[in-house]
Amino acid sequence: MSAAAPLRQSIRAEGTGWFPRGIHPPEEKLHSRYRPVMSLPAPAEVRLPLSQHAGAPASLIVKSGEEVAQGQCIAEAVGMVSAPLHAPFDAKVGRPVKITLPNGRRVDAISLTRKPEGADPGPRLWQELCSDAKSFATCLEMPADIILDMIRSAGLVGMGGAAFPTAVKLSPPKDKPIQCLLVNGCECEPYLTADDRLMREAPAAVLAGAVLAAKVLNAGRIDIGVEDNKPEAIKALRSWRPDWPGRMRVRGLPAKYPMGGEKQLIRAVYDKVIPTGGLPMHVGVAVINVSTAAAIAHAVRFRRPLTHRVVSVTGPGVTQPNNLWVPIGTGSDQLIEFCKGLTPSVGRVLSGGPMMGMALSELTVPVTKGSGGIVALRAEETKRPEETACVRCGRCVDACPLHLTPARLGQAVRHRRWDLAARENLMACMECGCCAYQCPAGIPLVQLMRTGKTELRKRVTRAGAA
Ligand code: SF4
Ligand code: SF4
Hints:
By secondary structure, the chain is α/β, with parallel strands linked by helices. Among the domains are: 11-34 and 123-302, 3-Layer(aba) Sandwich (Rossmann fold), CATH 3.40.50; 395-465, no CATH class. Helix content is 31%, strand content 19%. It contains 17 helices and 17 strands. The chain has helices at 5-12, 122-129, 133-137, 144-153, 166-169, 194-201, 203-217, 231-237, 262-270, 290-302, 332-338, 379-382, 395-399, 406-414, 418-423, 434-438, 445-465, and strands spanning 37-39, 45-49, 59-60, 67-68, 73-76, 85-86, 91-100, 106-114, 180-185, 221-227, 247-253, 285-289, 308-314, 322-327, 346-351, 358-359, 373-378. Strand 13 and strand 14 (322-327) form a beta hairpin. The termini are far apart. The model is unreliable at 1-11 (pLDDT under 50). One iron/sulfur cluster binds next to helix 13 and helix 14.
């Protein structure tokens, strides 16, 4: 049997649409799923973090006071894993500033002040993204190396949250050939509807972007996984079959959290298990988000760098939930203001959904390339049950999609048993929140996992430096 045989098997494999464990939290999509995407009027100022992607921060190539045009590169990628940044509108470069990201990291950022006489490019860019199949069909013949260059120079990163530079993801090592491109349209986090609206309103961009990415990867098969609570999106994506010799399928999947996790999605679609510490490429698969796919098509067909994205502003704490097309770098407060503000009952505002999102310490935190939602919850929804001792019910174990033992890991972190935490695979935890959601004792398991992972990382760094 040749060495490539197991990988060829992965092409044939069909998943059952299922992954073990996980949970079924209330979907709460109705707040915004019927709100078509609106272009947010360009704000007077954006603040662009230089580190809004995985890898090295981008390096500024413009100076304070300089005038820049819409789409102009203002910070270039540094090293192999990084991404450049571009101006979302004609602007004057302000001073470098420090901002706090939702995850608490203080990072360098640059402010851009919009030129008052400059046009708002938002509506035109959104219109381009919503172009029909005929328009996007024209870019599918582009050679793979040119597509990859365009993706790299457009500053594309994973827009599902991880923000890993797309050009790097689409350039796997030679000994890890990719057979299948898996496009993630699950959007399994409660409340969020940005990807749903994008698939419904810009399906041709999603499909064309998937074909362009598959060309770069030389993959023979594309699967687009969408949870079956988005029937309109599935229908829209099935309305066009781009001219492409490989196999392409839009697959409806049962709604279950966290179906949008890479490992869970690969299990559901291909019945492949990624070993602990492994990556999708180890089973011949690359996964990109639907927003990333659309941004690829936008970059290749219209030569547009990544300067705008769709963001859901939703939840019972928002007066008028919406899906907005916004310049990256816009303060979250401006999106909320456009949605007529917060309700008096609001208790917490999150960047991202309630399962994996982070509480915003200040509402001015800017939208980044990886942020798909702002969710405002009422005070009563954010109340945690008073914490009691673990009753050893095992519900956290039954919920964990990665087969970890959250109760034991939580104990290990509390008692600073770092050896035990490492042995029990704490670093594999994806912080999905299933364990904490199920825990009747109100134990803050995810916070414990995050604390423990931070400590283990520090220890590895210290050991490396010693
Ligand atoms: S947060 Fe971590 S430990 Fe808890 S269920 Fe998710 S993966 Fe498992
Ligand atoms: S769900 Fe909570 S109470 Fe039950 S075993 Fe896990 S940590 Fe303990």
